[in-house]
């Protein structure tokens, strides 16, 4: 969610915020997941802790391909724990949980487990789960040379697709994960 490999202003959350005139604080840290430590040596839980200090009205959190390779049961437990913490910290906030996106190739089977863990956690915490699909599927032209991260054009496409899927009327005030 932080625009790995491109100008941070091209990250999809900023694209979606600009399209919808939302106020946005993007707390994403490259490489982070519910279990996977990001570049700051923290998981999404640290972003949840930071989001709490901002008192947002809307929080967007996303399942992450960064958690691929993790044990499914440990991932489910960490996802639920993080979502419970988010709900407890921000009981009045609208929490929107997005499915993980993949690049231009066929998504690995474990991505379904990553998404399922978030579906269960969202249902348990009163969050809204949104399946954004795979907007980049079959579009190698929208992927960076690492074939993992979207280009600026790919991020723009993601931002537009996610914005359309969300169809929010309230401004997005926070984005703690991705």
TrEMBL record:
Gene3D superfamilies to which the protein is assigned, alphabetical? SGNH hydrolase
Instruction: Tell me where on the tree of life, at the top rank, the source sits.
Output: Bacteria
Stated name of the protein = SGNH hydrolase-type esterase domain-containing protein
Pfam families, alphabetized: Lipase_GDSL_2
Residue ranges occupied by any SGNH hydrolase-type esterase domain in the UniProt entry? 4-154
